């Protein structure tokens, strides 16, 4: 084993291998970073720079006019608060509830356990568009349409956006934790719920952060279900971005064919950047915490 291990690292130090690895990493990084860098640079360009073929990446003059117009059209002060409210609370509920469901599946034996796990996975395999009509009918009969609780209730019952993935994530993670922790806590007189929130849940920080990040992103970007169930009562910023072109034409009409108020690529990129910037900031903050939690939590299963 030691010889194989040594030869493996010796192979990685080979110049040809390092060149291939760095080439792949740079290529993948370019594919992911190019759209973001293009969006940032274009959003700060003036109309003159946009029509100038000699200006590609670096604007000749930075302008915030694009952001000013995009902010007004998106009604960003209100829509951003709505998005934070309508995404962070369901994401928090989903993070907690799916962990509790997965703990029950991992630690307890009950009749038809495999069948219930299969049904849980089936909720993910079935396309969400198939159940849109039935969901609307159900929440309409409960008189919840147009209210924030219509998004909170599924998350509270383990039926939020892609909850099955998070239950499976927690389920596999809890199976890796030694059951001797549970047995030791039971000897000290702790019940199952105390074992969960005092021992198992605090040890699951990597799964918690991962679940919260993806839940937040999916709830933030959801427009189809949110638009159907909430209508125009609560407008999130992705929905405002969806209607951006139509609202811009109303708020900034062009006069006599003038291009002064005509929508351009810089304004579009500014609106898109405003929409995704909170997610980028959240991800950068939680990514560091996620990496640190992986380094601190070094637990092996039995």
TrEMBL record:
It is found in: Cell membrane. GO terms for cellular component: plasma membrane. The keyword Transport applies. Residues 80-286 form the ABC transmembrane type-1 domain. InterPro entries: MetI-like, MetI-like_sf. The keyword Signal does not apply. The chain crosses the membrane at residues 20-40, 84-103, 115-139, 151-174, 195-220, 267-286. One of its GO terms (biological process) is transmembrane transport. Keywords: Cell membrane, Membrane, Transmembrane, Transmembrane helix, Transport. It is a multi-pass membrane protein. Its main location: membrane. Belongs to the binding-protein-dependent transport system permease family. This is Binding-protein-dependent transport systems inner membrane component. It comes from Fervidobacterium nodosum (strain ATCC 35602 / DSM 5306 / Rt17-B1).
